[in-house]
Every structure is written in structure tokens, then in C-alpha cells.
Amino acid sequence: MAFCAKCDGKLGFFDNKQRIDGAVYCYACASEVKEEKDKNYSRTKGKKAISDLRPSTEEISRIFVVTVDNPIGMRIAEHMGIICSRAVYALSLLKNVSFSAEDNVQGGRSIFFEKCFAEIEAQALRELKEKAYNRGADGVVGVRIEHQFIESTGLISIGGKLLLLSMSGTAVKTVKSSFSNLSP
């Protein structure tokens, strides 16, 4: 059993993990470590890091995402086009066996599969917000979320399925109200 070098989270044999400079990290911590390494590299070499080209977490958090086309209390100034994001997760026979050995099944719920869904939903949502930010949008309206299982015959899945989550919506720029800073 391995543990993440940053957050000390338990990493199972089939969990998404990455090795950086000899240390093992979970997927979330690995992206943070890579981002920090990119920033350090850019400072020392005078080049722009890849992570500097991506919007920060704070900038991403300002982008709103709603499933309705016309949110109440908002005026849309400009529709900036359709944007889509996708995330794929392999559910293989080997992962299914490992989940039954490690997973806590509570009331018929599988923590393993709930984590899988949460991970790919967060990944697809961040990508959708990044695309909206890159277009200069304030948010995304009319978002549709779709889950699909795809049969896979590749070596990675070994007779399993791929879980595809896709999100799509319309990037919009809203009209800023002078009353938006006032509290009720």
C-alpha cells in the first residue's frame, strides 16, 4: 500500500498515481507539484511556465455554471458560442476486483465508484470553466451533463468499460449591474 507524499492519502494498487522525482503522489497532489515545479522553472530560466498560461483556481472559481438557459436576475450581454468538455475513466476488470477488496460498501453504495464519478465530474467541470475563461466569458448557461459507458477491448481496460462524462453549454458574458455589490 502506497501513500501520497503530499497529503498522506492512501493509494491503492489501481488508483491514479504519479511519480515525480522519486516520490509518489495522488492525481490531485501531482498536478499541484507539477504546477509548482513549472513556476520555479520559469523563475529560474526566464521562460513562461505552462501553468502560467492556464487560469488560476481563483479565476476559474469566478466562472458560473448553470443548467438553465436564462438565469433569474442575470442579463446576458453576449452569447460567445458552445463549449464542451469531456473526461474518460477506465473501469477495468482488475479495478473492479480491487474495489471489492478495498472498498467500503455502505448501504449498497460503493465509495470507489462514487470517487470515480466525483473525480471525472470535477475534471470536466474545470475544463469547461477554463474554456469559458479563455473565451472571455463570465459563465456557462444551459449546461447539459451526459454519462456514457463505452465497451473497450484495449489492453488498459482488459475487458472493462470506459466511463465517458461530457458537459456542454453556451459561454456567455453578463451585464454588470451597479447594484451587484450591495448586500440586502
Short description:
This protein has 184 residues and is α+β, with helices and mostly antiparallel strands.
Descriptive notes:
This protein is α+β, with helices and mostly antiparallel strands and 184 residues long. The chain folds into 2 domains: 1-54, no CATH class; 56-184, Translation Initiation Factor IF3 (2-Layer Sandwich). Helices cover 34% and strands 33% of the residues. The strands form 4 sheets. A 4-stranded mixed β-sheet has the order 5-9-10-6. A two-stranded antiparallel ribbon has the order 1-2. The protein has a two-stranded antiparallel sheet with strand order 3-4. A hairpin with a 2-residue loop joins strand 7 (105-106) and strand 8. It is globular and about 55 Å long. The chain starts with a strand and ends in a 10-residue tail after the last strand. Mean pLDDT is 76; it is low at 178-184.
